Amino acid sequence: MSATIRDVAERAGVGLATVSRVVNNSPLVSPATRQRVLNVIAELRYTPHQAARSLSLGKTLTVTTIAPFFTRPSVVERLRGVEANLADSGYQLIVCNVETVERRDICLRDLPRKERSDGVLIISLAPHPEEVTALQQPGVAVVLIDTYVAGMTCVFIDDQQGGYIATRHLLDLGHERIAYISDPLTDPFNFTSSRDRYAGYRQALTDAGMPFCESYHRSGMHGRYEARRLATELLSLDRAPTAIFAASDTQALGVLEAAHDIHLRVPDDLSVIGYDDIEIAEYLGLTTIRQPLFETGARGVELLLERLGNLDTDPVSERMPVELVIRRTTAAPRKLSSDAERR
Amino acid sequence: MSATIRDVAERAGVGLATVSRVVNNSPLVSPATRQRVLNVIAELRYTPHQAARSLSLGKTLTVTTIAPFFTRPSVVERLRGVEANLADSGYQLIVCNVETVERRDICLRDLPRKERSDGVLIISLAPHPEEVTALQQPGVAVVLIDTYVAGMTCVFIDDQQGGYIATRHLLDLGHERIAYISDPLTDPFNFTSSRDRYAGYRQALTDAGMPFCESYHRSGMHGRYEARRLATELLSLDRAPTAIFAASDTQALGVLEAAHDIHLRVPDDLSVIGYDDIEIAEYLGLTTIRQPLFETGARGVELLLERLGNLDTDPVSERMPVELVIRRTTAAPRKLSSDAERR
DNA sequence: CCGTTTAGTGGAAGCGTTTCCAGTATACCA
DNA sequence: TGGTATACTGGAAACGCTTCCACTAAACGG
Questions:
Q1: I need a labelling partner for B132 at 20 to 30 A (CA). Which of A183, B41, B162, B237 fits?
Q2: Given pLDDT bands bounded at 50, 70 and 90, which one contains residue B110?
Q3: Per the CB < 8 Å rule, is A1 touching B87?
Q4: CA-to-C1' distance for A58 and C9, Å?
Q5: Which nucleotide does the CA of A20 lie closest to, via C1'?
Q6: In this structure, which CATH number among 1.10.260.40, 3.40.720.10, 2.10.10.20, 3.30.70.1150 belongs to the domain A5-48?
Q7: Contact residues on chain A for B113, CB-CB shorter than 8 A
């Protein structure tokens, strides 16, 4: 159907090897021959057959990215970073979306195999110990994004630090009743960010000599609606929090809605801080913790490409910084009401 | 390095062909042999080599999706539809992001080739006539999403209708000065949606006997910031519009910002309607035109898989419906002020 | 009981590349 | 002038799989 290297060779009156050399820019071809071959290639619209190429080469020329819920703004942004750096590398990007635990397990087991892909990028999914062992088998290069596992190459965020900074910000403003809304701290996907941010939250509280109140921590399925529900619960508490730290901007939106529902004004009656700094955060004036989403993806690919060149590289891990972005949803608590309530 | 079919065959004491048959669920294997082979496969952690498989099969087992600006909410949602329906099909999804015209041209020329992919999904990019010819060459199955081209298989949206409905809604509310903000009507990517929606806008105006005012149409680069700038221009006109139809929700956000900048209240002083019904639209109470984003992606894959089975299928095109979603950013214009200004 | 079908099996060709190896000119050096 | 390095070139093996074809042994019908 389409032209093969043999067709080109015959038509140009040269050997197969020569055509291959031309295609691969080998210097061992005389200019005259090269030109003749190039003409025939153009004439026949010849394109090398990927599968044949990779079979012969022993490489798939392919990089697989495993991403959970790849429509979430934060994931999309990381993916963009991945794509941007992979586009000109000659590798194709295979994207695998994970929305169920079964698929998570299948993907982590079957995809990182030499027969399928030269390299694998795993976003936000922390492999279990036995999976780590499998991932370390030589043959496939693996880079973890947004996750830290000792002994593997990772690009990650210091989420504990992020949680700390967010809470610290609220403490600095004078808040004493600070709640935290997040995904479940342990979940079957093995996401670590809610857990790490929680640890930072607790640490900041402790460092400030502030007691931790169990009922100020609520967790539930990721998403705006669930966060709205949790925030509503929180806000109807006897001693309702004056500030809520949401583990993601999306969840912060839910908190904002809940506040709106009961006619609480933000930041006057309630301070809200999110996490991620997704695009809409700026629009809404949401105070948040910015993490370098695009950059983690981009850097992850860089590390992967390096490892692809040399598989024996020692694993490296890079921590990316987070940053507090103060906008319009956090402010000092109203002394009056909180004092009144307290006495 | 990793086990091949030969290793399995030797270890199980059977022929290559038998192993292949087991792997591919051929009925021509006795239960006993099958079990023996399966045991060895498990033991050796054997996985068929993709490239070898596809070379032998003459198929790449791969589907490529070409998407412009794949982080835009509307595109992400379509991609999710694509992924959802492709996940269990046995085909791998290769994603190609297009953010420059050069890459658009390269992708449209090089990717839809039998040697690279069994099928190609093209999102929102209308091929030029000469590209259409190339895309119709047998060998690759191509499905266009969000674009209509005669003679090709497409899943598209009636954007003209959408533009009409949006404008009609504003007219019905009593607006007489309705502006339209969009991407440039003709652009090098050959996006058609802004153009079609514009046509609907004009048509609705005409049908209502309303004159079209050139200065009420502004176009610029896609995005919130540009839309905000254009809206600001519009709102500082002598006879400023009382309603603005934005060609996307993202742009509608920019309009909302512009209104906020000059302390115009929405919908009291200004009605705003968007397009797409992206997730944030509901949160913001944005009136908009909903288009079935996920569904176009999902349906596109279905059609592609059908064509993959039988390449000689006649091209079909399916139009998906749009729907007006009325929320809180549109209302009747304030008679008082508009009358006052007019006289 | 003997042909004939049928289930199960293995060998080998072929998919389209890359690349090692061997070969043939031509150029260069002594 | 002969020998050797040099610049190209082509043949063929190999990559790991699928599948056609040939084959054997058992089952079946007359």
A1: B162
A2: confident
A3: no
A4: 30
A5: C18
A6: 1.10.260.40
A7: 2, 47
Domain ranges of chain B: 5-48, 59-157+293-320, 159-291+325-342
How many angstroms separate the CA atoms of B146 and B192, rounded?
9
CB contact under 8 A, A97 and B83: yes
Protein-proximal nucleotides of chain D (any atom < 7 Å from a CB): 7-21
Q: Do B114 and A1 touch (CB under 8 A)?
A: yes
CA distance A208 to A169: 12
* Ordered per-residue pLDDT tens for chain A, 343 residues: 688 999 999 999 998 999 999 999 988 888 889 999 999 999 999 999 999 999 999 999 999 999 999 999 999 999 999 999 998 888 999 999 999 999 999 999 988 888 889 999 999 999 999 999 988 887 789 999 999 999 999 999 999 999 999 999 999 999 999 999 999 999 999 899 999 999 999 999 999 999 999 999 999 999 999 999 999 999 999 999 999 999 999 999 999 999 999 999 999 999 999 999 999 999 999 999 999 999 999 999 999 999 988 777 889 999 999 999 999 999 999 864 444 444 3
Facing residue for B51 by CB, picked from A55, A87, A93: A55
Question: Which nucleotide lies nearest residue B5, CA to C1'?
Answer: D16
Gyration radius of chain A over CA positions: 26
Residue listed under structure tokens 């090269």: A34
Q: What are the angstrom distances between the C-alpha of B88 and each of A97, A332, B83, B93?
A: 11, 52, 9, 11
Summarize pLDDT for B206-232 with one digit per residue, the tens.
999 999 999 999 999 999 999 999 999
Q: What is the rounded distance in angstroms from the CA atom of residue B153 to the CA atom of residue A298? A: 35
| Residue B116 in this model has a pLDDT that exceeds 60 | yes
A283/B contact by beta carbon, under 8 A: yes
In this structure, which amino acid lies at residue A77? E
Pick the CATH number of B159-291+325-342 from 3.40.50.1480, 3.40.50.2300, 1.10.3110.10, 3.60.15.10: 3.40.50.2300
Per DSSP, the three-state class of B134 is: helix
Is B115's Cβ below 8 Å from some Cβ in A? yes
CATH code linked to domain A159-292+325-342: 3.40.50.2300
What is the value of pTM for the model shown?
0.90
Residues B107 and B97: their CA atoms lie apart, in Å, by: 9
Whether residue B141 contacts residue B304, with contact meaning beta carbons closer than 8 Å, is answered with yes
Q: Which residue is nearest to nucleotide D11 (CA to C1')?
A: A15
Tokens of A253: 């939106």
